[in-house]
Design brief:
This protein is mainly α and 219 residues long. The protein is built from eleven helices and no strands. Helix 2 crosses helix 3 and helix 2 crosses helix 5. It starts with 8 loop residues before the first helix and ends in an 8-residue tail after the last helix.
Length: 219
């Protein structure tokens, strides 16, 4: 099996395009690097690695900024990377390979761009609708939040119950969402009893009676 070149293919491809002096806008490709590959890259040509880190970071920062202003600002991807990636000047030579590896994974992930997020959403909605669930672009984010929390708490309930809880979250504010997600097991067990009037949701008295809370919640 041929040994992989230490210098990334994307670098040489970019240089070839640059030399060809093709007029429209040059789009330089990217690829994923493991930490070991990035370390080999650093040993062979630290200056090129530094240059590539800056290029990848520029791509990542633009995507993060755009995502933060979009409908996907509520996604797990944005929450994880909202602070962006470290500047090259803040990284030591020893830290650079690992940082570059993580950066390369982000840049090449479909979820890192708005276009990719839309494609993921479209595919997920199609899959869930094939299962008979009434999922759409409006309730998608709430549905994903419920699914993610179910996974983190290792809760096993039917998707129909998850959708009912997601629809309930949609009719409230951020406080409702946080309360539901932090008490998700209870809500999933009571999903069939949730009442979601058009445009409003149930009031705090209904919640208190249904879930036996000792305090009122302001919706």
């Amino acid at each position: 099996m041929a040994k992989r070149s230490i210098i990334p293919r994307s670098y040489w491809t970019a240089k070839a395009i640059e030399r060809a002096n093709r007029p429209p806008k040059i789009v330089w490709p990217t690829e994923v690097f493991s930490v070991d590959e990035a370390k080999s890259f650093a040993r062979d040509d630290m200056e090129t690695l530094r240059s590539e880190y800056s290029r990848y970071r520029s791509i990542a920062q633009r995507r993060i900024e755009r995502m933060g202003k979009s409908e996907f600002a509520d996604t797990k991807t944005y929450a994880k990377h909202a602070g962006g990636f470290a500047k090259l000047s803040d990284l030591s030579p020893a830290d650079l390979p690992k940082a570059f590896s993580e950066l390369s994974k982000f840049v090449n992930a479909k979820s890192s761009s708005i276009t990719g997020q839309k494609a993921i959403r479209e595919k997920t909605i199609k899959t869930l609708r094939a299962q008979g669930l009434d999922v759409n672009e409006q309730n998608y984010n709430a549905m994903i939040k419920v699914f993610e929390e179910m996974r983190s708490q290792k809760l096993v309930y039917g998707s129909d119950k998850a959708l009912e809880v997601a629809d309930y979250i949609m009719h409230g504010d951020d406080d409702r969402r946080e309360m539901v997600l932090s008490n998700l097991k209870t809500y999933l067990e009571k999903a069939d009893e949730l009442e979601i009037p058009e445009g409003s949701g149930v009031n705090s008295d209904d919640i208190e009676d249904l879930f036996d809370y000792d305090e009122d919640f302001d919706f």
